[in-house]
């Protein structure tokens, strides 16, 4: 999940700002609908990453309490 979230952020960054040293132009000025969708996708990806982390911590805590 961490790698997919970071990859989505990187692709969104390239779409918004481009990568001049590689010859990739920013596409957000030309296709704003794409950038809006990618922003929502990145936000949901980060929310799911944080949610999974919180659930893992809660589950580990509950397991530690039940063992004690």
Automatic annotation (TrEMBL):
Keyword annotations from UniProtKB, A to Z: Cell membrane, Membrane, Transmembrane, Transmembrane helix
Entries under Pfam families matching the protein: CASP_dom
Domain annotation Casparian strip membrane protein: ranges: 1-50
Superkingdom of this protein's organism: Eukaryota
GO-annotated cellular components: plasma membrane
Membrane topology type: Multi-pass membrane protein
Chief localization: membrane
Ranges that cross the membrane: 42-65
Location in the cell: Cell membrane
Subunit structure: Homodimer and heterodimers.
NCBIfam families named among the record's database cross-references: A_tha_TIGR01569
Protein name: CASP-like protein
Organism classification: Eukaryota, Viridiplantae, Streptophyta, Embryophyta, Tracheophyta
